[in-house]
Amino acid sequence: MMPTTQQPPRPPKPLAEFRSPFAGAGVGDIPLRELTKSEPLIISPETTLRDALFELNRDDVQAGVIAEHRENPLGIVTLRDLIDAITLKRADMDEPVISYMTAAPISLPVDAPAHRAKVALTRSRLSHLVLLEPDGRLFNLLSHSDLPGFREGGAETLINSIEHAGNVDSMAKAAEAIRQRGRELFVNGMAVEALCQWMSGLNDLLSIRVIELIADEFDLPPVSWCWMVFGSEGRLEQTFATDQDNGLIFMPDNEEDTPRIRAALLPFAKAVNKALDRCGFALCHGDIMAGNPQLCLSVREWRDRFQHWLSTPDPKSLLNATIFFDFRPLYGQDELVDELHNWLLPKPPEHPRFLHALATEALTCSPSLGLFGRFAYDGGNRYPHTIDMKRRGARLFIDAARIWALKHGVWSTNTTERLRAAAPKMNRSPADTASSIEAFDLIQRVRMQRQLAGGDYDEINRVNPSEFSSTQRLMIKEAFKQAKVLQLRLRQEFEQ
């Protein structure tokens, strides 16, 4: 039985250098289920244009779903579609509305993050998309107005530059413009969570455009495939210094065709990795990239890979594998990744040894606080009096949030949203959760400040506490104390 300890006080409100006037502006990883309020308007396919207009006006909505019932949505019709049909196409008011709907509309799982909806609506230039339950039934319609901060921070100009880029050199210029604008927003005080989501959205659009440009140069096999992202990109937590963590998933018609399809996809994947590197997304030091044959896998192979980690959780291999549990789709047939996610979601609770191994590995790294609350430096002779704010700071929150998300079946990959979503399942108070998120936000902001100063791969996340004011040092210590609170909870859960 472990002795009970009094939880340290919450970090004080950020001051001066750490202030965030746009706190709460981000909606990146909130499940789409939480963003729609009213019931969708369902319009029968045989309904006339006249009656469809009446129903839209009666319900005071801009769009409706064309369907006989929720199990089979056929398309979307908007008020603008109907007005254009009547005024421009001279449609008869008694024609059926199905003739003027948008068929096979963009759809997303209802538990997918809002970030994916932002990217999908931006790329398609459509105003609405369909949200589906796991069994394929209609949940609701989602529109731009349901996504706060859809194009904040001057994103519109950057989006246009991405869309009109015709080669990788142009994409590299657009990528630098995104980073420069991100630096400006950061310096002006944009909240870290919102800024990471803002940059992740634009980086997604840029990466998607790069993939499209490179795909045009290859004769790809006629199979379903999807480009996946892991790590910080998968968590929507990219900062100013980031490398690539990606992979490919594909569905062969026959499993024996897998080696041949992989061989056909690898040159394309390597070319995309090279192009992204030119755009400022450095090649991964650990070769966690789609151009690596070990990460260009069929659906069955990805399932086998995750099943192996779950069933035989070797701590050393899990240390390298954890970022794969932060995966999300980027480009291609998203349903391949969504189905993999749905397959994986209920499995971790069935493998307590796996969760225990994750917690054991997470607890091998502690916050940089020593005796009497003093900073514990980890830079050695090469970087004296410094702390790695990624490994000894951010990672502690990321690991704990991942473990609880896997244990409690949370769809989200983002650290703060994982902490929010898991809290009720853990009987964790809103105040405790807010304290953890505020501490993580502070550490991320310190990391980003350091990254703006530049440096090599080994020092880009290192800070010297003596360079901060006494108030800032106190705040960083309080953030580390919050990390200790999370680790204490992990010990209580997994080391009994």
Summarize the structure.
By secondary structure, the protein is of the alpha/beta class. Helices cover 46% and strands 11% of the residues. It has helices at residues 49-59, 79-87, 114-124, 155-163, 168-187, 192-215, 231-234, 258-278, 299-311, 315-321, 334-344, 352-362, 390-408, 415-422, 430-452, 470-494; strands at 42-43, 63-67, 73-78, 102-103, 107-109, 128-132, 138-143, 224-229, 246-251, 296-298, 328-332, 387-388, 462-463.
Provide structural commentary.
With 496 residues, this protein is α/β, with parallel strands linked by helices. Mean pLDDT is 88; it is low at 1-26. Helix 1 (49-59) links the parallel strand 1 and strand 2 (63-67). It is globular and about 80 Å long. The strands form 4 sheets. It has a 4-stranded mixed sheet. Strands 10-9-8-11 form a 4-stranded mixed sheet, with helices on both faces. 46% of the residues lie in helices and 11% in strands. It has 3 domains: 32-146, CBS-domain; 155-341, Beta Polymerase, domain 2, CATH 3.30.460.10; 350-494, Four Helix Bundle (Hemerythrin (Met), subunit A) (Up-down Bundle), CATH 1.20.120. The chain has helices at residues 49-59, 79-87, 114-124, 155-163, 168-187, 192-215, 231-234, 258-278, 299-311, 315-321, 334-344, 352-362, 390-408, 415-422, 430-452, 470-494; strands at residues 42-43, 63-67, 73-78, 102-103, 107-109, 128-132, 138-143, 224-229, 246-251, 296-298, 328-332, 387-388, 462-463.
